[in-house]
Amino acid sequence: MLCLYTAEAAFLPPVQAAGTQRATPRAREVFLGFSNKLFDDLQGASSRAAEKERLLLEPNSRPMRPPSEKRANSGRGFGAGASSKNANKGARKRPRKADSKDTGASNNGKVTEAENYVHALHELRKRTLTESGVVMLPQALAGETARALREEVIEEIAEAREAVRHDPAVSTSRFHVPVEQPTRAFTLLPFLRTRSDSVDPPTAAPPNGPILRAVQELLGPRAPLGKLFGSMCDGDDSVLYDFYALRTEPGSLRQQIHSDTPHQKVPPLFAAFIALQDVSIEMGPTVFLPGTHTRTSQRLQFDHGVYNGGRDEMLAAAKSEYGLLKSGDLVLFDMRTLHAGNANLVDGGSTRYFLCITFRNTKANAVDLGHVPCIRPGFVDKFTLGDIHEQLELSAPFSFVGDGLPVSPAIV
What we know:
Layout: H1 7-10, H2 25-57, E1 61-63, H3 69-73, H4 84-92, H5 113-132, E2 134-137, H6 143-166, H7 171-175, E3 184-188, H8 210-219, H9 224-232, E4 239-248, E5 269-275, E6 286-288, H10 297-304, H11 310-317, E7 320-322, E8 330-334, E9 339-341, E10 352-360, H12 385-392
Helix pairs in contact: 2-11, 5-9, 6-8, 10-11
């Protein structure tokens, strides 16, 4: 989730001290001219480094695939890396008793074949995520929901821009940064949109809008993604950390390989990127380096090989996977995993929208998570996975939580 600022946002002058003289327009012009030059130089260097990384990775890169469902059908639910000892151990287990919370079993406590399959597929995905740091889930979001949500996001971006036009100070609570970046930007989302801006009074939110439908399909008690978040983090106590739409436009540059959170023993953050349209190679699919979420020799070579050629050697040998997702597909990853967004090409590319959801593991060290919550200010540390389940059981979910935006001071 590497965020690029515009030049003005990245190099704004320090806040004016009390009693000091305000900078003249000419001084600001000179400052911004220098800032733009510095920003362009930094961006150029980053772009050249990212292109070098792309060329190193390309020979061993392939499209990402979901775990083979044949393994789930076998009843074992283990990933490709499972040893025969562990696999046989799993095969000898007696059928477990039904757990209505994660299977919905109701046949006098007996687990049906379909329920066993759902459980085995969950275990397979969980093991893949544990071992590789990344897993793909196809069709996690219904096609119609993805299409409606994409349109909703486009409307939300237009509304946010209008609000910022009236009051630039609200940009951070809308776009996560002081100035929206033109080709790659976040838009912080509400659970319910009210079709409002800074001038007109809000209108009533629809009872079941696209954002709410997406939350239900993705994070409901029996939703595969919600179950994985709970398993990988802290169950119902897992905390919603990021909730935003990611937009990339043609002309968006390739990112350098990075991780979104520093290494610690307990994985602190897991993020899902949900495609709201088909993602072609020209649109810049995210590339992941599976297995780099832990301190293997491969990861250490990347971290400490900047100046001795070790990083280039590691990237040239690494097997990477990129997400050519269909609308409604998602990638869930441990945010310690190395990854990068590819360039959205001017020729053949088009605007790409993702819904992005991150949960925090409360058992991990929260002192340094790598980035502040990318979520509306009023929602920071507000919802656990269990809270979301409770809201979704209500007749009007999230109707009393507000829009998450700061309350504007009353004008007297």
